[in-house]
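Lab notebook: predicted structure, single chain.

Context: the supervisor wants predicted structures on file for every construct in the current expression panel, including those that have not yet been purified. This is the next one on the list. No modifications to the sequence; it matches the entry in the shared construct table.
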Amino acid sequence: MTAKSINVVIANLPGTPLTEEQRTQMLSQIQAVSPRISLKDISNVINADRRGETEARQQLDVVLSDAEVFFGMPLPNDIVSRAPHLKWIQSPLAGTDQFLTPAVVASRIVLTKARIHDVQISETVFSMILMLARRSLEHFRLQEKKQWVRLDPTIIQGKTVGILGLGNIGLAVARLAKAFGMTVLATKAHPDGISKNVDLVLPPSGTREVLSRSDFLVVLLPITADTKNLIGEAEIKLMKPTAYLINVSRGGIVDEEVISRALKEHWIAGAAFDVFASDPRPLSPDSQLWETPNLIITPHNAGHCLNYAELVTDQFCQNLDQYMAGKTLLGVVDKNLGY
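Prediction complete. Output recorded below exactly as produced.
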């Protein structure tokens, strides 16, 4: 008896668009997992479908009608009703909020997230910590003015890093912090004893303690009903006036209007933001954040790297092998919790 085919639908991956050669290589890698896999690439029609183009919608309806696995982004409109046999969605991102539509949450579809970001995001966090501590942003601005001014930096050895959201990325940040001789505090939804390289792990109720004790506060939380607008005026005023705030998780967790005022009025010493409430749209040219002193701004690329597509495809292939063997998948998301 011939084994049943697994219909796998592939869409776009984040970052720089793949060349034809790279996409062919990616598809070959996925196909190599098993001869039972039937691959369909919808990269060229998915955006047209989301724009409402009739022909693209009809093409996509045919592909989705027997799809069992979806990998890529964006999620097609009405995917639950259009793909009645869909069992698993693999997000190519660490954050899955854009995949958690009410219909997906209510369905029996398994959602998994990419777990490939610990190295690049932890390196980004420490580049930000070092830039803030060494006052690099101020030096760059002085350089533009051709001014030779020596500024006194902060030594990070012996300082305290607070991590809100101790997942895989948080643990990678903690490892680097320990290499620099820092104390590490963290919050975790469900503390489960001592974590390696972390001096103290607290439940979310300990957030205020972490805020008040940290010299560098790193936000690594998912965006949920509990974390939206979590850090506002009262929370920032708990921080030391010499402290720095770093957000590389999701916009909407930190009140951007408050952080602008906090830096202008010196409530804290500086900040670095890779994510903004406007995501996935760029930060508006009219935003006051552009003119906020001692604020480092990067365009939501803390988790990106040159070989991102290769890394996320490797994980998908590993998960696809697990799926076909009936084993537990990597990075399963609790759809009700949002992470």
